Every structure is written in C-alpha cells, then in structure tokens.
Amino acid sequence: MLKINDLKLTINDNKILDIKSFTCESPGLYVILGPSGCGKTTLLNVIAGLNTNYSGKVSVLNRNYGRMKEKAITRFRSANISVFFQHNIFLEDLTLAENISLSALNTNKNAKGIINTKVYKLAQHLNIQEELTHKVKTLSGGEKTRGSLARTLLKDVTIYLFDEPTD
After folding, report:
1. SS3 of 145, please?
2. Cα-Cα-Cα-Cα dihedral of 121, 124, 97, 82, to 10°?
3. What confidence tens digit (pLDDT) does each residue in 56-93 have?
4. Residue 8 β-bridge partners
C-alpha cells in the first residue's frame, strides 16, 4: 500500500525529512505524531504526490512516483487519494455545495445528480446542510472545516490523508 525507502527532503539546507524505511502494507488508520515543524505535512504531501522534490523511493499502491511524470501523478492522485488540507482551501465566491463537489465532478462529470445527493448526505452528517447554498466567504471557520471534511470524504478512493483535521 505504502512503501518509503531512503527518503530525504531538504529545503534551504534544512533537512525536513530523513526516513530510512516506512511501510504500511494493510488498510487501516495510521497516525503520524510529532511536534510542530517536524515534517508531518511535508510527508503527507510526498505521499499524495504533491511534493516530488526528494531523493529516495516512494511507492503508493504499487506506483513509484519517481518513475511517473507530473500529469500521471495528478491522474493517479485524483483516482486514488483524497486530501484534507490543514488550511481550508475554497473558491470564496462559490457556494459550499459547489466547492465540495468540485473534485468529484472533476473525475466524473456525468454523475452530477449522484454527487449532489452524496454532498447533501455528508452535509447532513456534518450538520452543514443549511450552509450548502451559502457563499463560502460568509461561513464561519468551523463550517468551512466541516465543508473541507465533506469534500475529502465525497471521493470514493483507497487512501484518505488528513492533515490536522481538528484544531
């Protein structure tokens, strides 16, 4: 599922990651703990294929990012990984429902009705169904966080990565 060997990542002469070996072979919940600034977000970005400026080998679902071009990594991530980012990232002038739906519509434009139904069900579970028609710029921080969670869970993928989903 996930294999990392000899991963090294340096930014401005600062060693951010130095991982000799790390493996997750079976599905499950894995937690990465550490103090602020130790590289947790950077590691998640590497696993998601968002950061490829490293040395070593990173293999996700038997795909080696080192052998893939950027477009292939993007397609792979879109089909297999959903990421909850530490900071809410939205298009402020769109509604919450439109923002939640964007990533799923990107991969399946023909399923708009199904996606809208899933968005509403997720919103109900997260108690933000009333906010679905509101522009994101009018929402509270907590409502945006729950919207981000709904967007992450909307995609039916193998790997979900959560970067500090609670404050």
Report:
1. helix
2. -60
3. 999 999 999 988 999 999 999 989 999 999 888 899 99
4. 18, 55
